[in-house]
From TrEMBL:
Keyword rRNA-binding appears in the UniProt entry: yes
The protein's name: GTPase Era
Organism: Granulimonas faecalis
Region described as G3: 97-100
UniProt lineage: Bacteria, Bacillati, Actinomycetota, Coriobacteriia, Coriobacteriales
Family statement drawn from the similarity comment of this UniProt entry: Belongs to the TRAFAC class TrmE-Era-EngA-EngB-Septin-like GTPase superfamily. Era GTPase family.
Positions of region (G5): 188-190
Amino acid sequence: MEDTENQYDGLDLDEEELAMMGEQGAAVAPVSAPGDVPDDFRSGFVALVGRPNAGKSTLLNACMGGHVAITSPVAQTTRKRMRAVINRPDAQIVIVDTPGLHKPKDTLGRELNRAALAELADVDVVAMLLDATKPAGTGDAWVAKHVDESRAVRLLVVTKADIATPEQVQAQLEAGNAMACFDESLVVSSTEDFNVDSFIAAVTDHLPYGPRWFPLDMPVDASDEELAAEFIREKVLLNCRDEVPHSVGVLCDGIEWRDDGLASVRATIFVERDSQKGILVGKGGSMIRRIGTQARLELEGLFHRKVFLDLQVRVKSQWRRDDAAIKRFGYSAEQ
Ligand SMILES: Nc1nc2c(ncn2[C@@H]2O[C@H](COP(=O)(O)OP(=O)(O)OP(=O)(O)O)[C@@H](O)[C@H]2O)c(=O)[nH]1
């Protein structure tokens, strides 16, 4: 069903809320002292915003040249703001991946929207992503309205050029530019590495002169536990269908860095109903074993060592309507 404007009623943050959230984001302090970087060093933050499935996390990964943010064909994959850092001799670019803006059905959905919108208040550049293969709708117009109100430099990025026709790309460029006043428009394919460099260059050109905000050895601002939980959730999304993906929350209960070089990771996958637990565990444990194997291989790549993964599945009824649970999972706007 096509989104209609009034489905988003009550979602807009007022100025006070935005200012408050902007201040929280601004709590990052520079790590480089004056003189550590050249006078013409550029640095700052670019937020990727757009509807679910627009390709935000995939573009972030393409910019980073690796698997940093989780992606899947399931809408609303991203639940945590993810900041990834590109370091160049002339610039430091902090890319902020945000949850897809959508019509929320529960407290979690509302928190995800709040988290995404809050980023608009506190970045230097906003890149609004539009999927070239999906006709722009009122949901995109709603996102564009917020982008238009942002004080940041605005980029329109039409994504998935590899699977769109030239006509679709052109139509999306026109639709996007009709919805908001953009400073620049680009067409990319993140999976085919088409124009990803141009995107980074465009962002860099619009960043102010400034210090480094993150140390050179910190490509993402997430802890090992947070990354482990997200990569496990990604494997659940890739293996499960229907209602299970949206009901899944993952908590990493701990990582032990053992003397024998092995990382022992304990994590719990939460679902909302017994029936979902049954699907997730699978016949004779086949599904959870598959998810565990895929997640373990991913974590071995991430941690550069062998991983022992202990996965539990538990039921927590209606956690998506529970503020405290949403906070505990780290999916809240107030991180
Ligand atoms: N062919 C193609 N597919 C893409 C491209 N970019 C993203 N995709 C696919 O589109 C789907 C959604 O991509 P994501 O990067 O997870 O989208 P997102 O905007 O982060 O989604 P949310 O987390 O729901 O907000 C995934 O299946 C990606 O593989 C692209 O350039 N080309």
